[in-house]
Amino acid sequence: MPRRPGIFARIPKHAWIGLAVLFVSMMLVYYATRLALPYLTLHVLTGPLDARIPFSPPWVTVYVLSFPFWLVSALWILSADRAFARRFCASFVLAMAVSCAVFLLWPGTLERPEVTQRGFFAQCVRFIYRVDAPTNLCPSLHVLNSYFCCRGAWESRAVPRRYAVFSLVFFLLVCCSVLLVKQHAFIDVPAAVAVAEAALQCGRRLRLERVGSAVEHHFRKE
User: Fold this and answer.
1) Is 104 a member of any domain?
2) Alpha-carbon distance 25 to 141, whole Å?
3) More reliable by pLDDT, 87 or 9
4) Which of 3, 51, 137, 217 is 20 to 30 A from 41 (CA-CA)?
């Protein structure tokens, strides 16, 4: 009996290319904008509502689990037809471009609490605080990425409905986690949803899948 191909072998090539596009665009925005921070004036984004939100280290589990959630969701979503995958990627790149502009024009920061608790969750929060400075906050890329995964899961024909429901629940948990571990101010959450949804709508109305098709055609000619 012939062996069934492994799970990675069943993922089409265009999904891996799309994943690379998503990853590179996010890394460029996240790290490149930080090079300009020494020359920018940071604005404190926290308000009265943020003071009412408690600090809860156990929520760091959702914050960390969002990374594999993005990976699995993106590969699943991008495994749909090429046109949908191209539009999804183009919309994401557009959202990253808008986020980059906001990070540079209105750079934000916040004062994070001192982690006095003990235990595994507190240690995880301390580690995140060490490796991730409180900058590039609005819009929250954590929320933006999770929203893209949620919306893509509901629209992609490659994703089962039960996973789409899970992605919605997990997206809401991510929104809570970024606030409860004090990685973001409240304004960062709706801003991320607004940027992501605007980019998705532009992708649909402007048929941004044509951009990916033109790029692919260009490289094939060469």
Assistant:
1) yes
2) 12
3) 87
4) 51
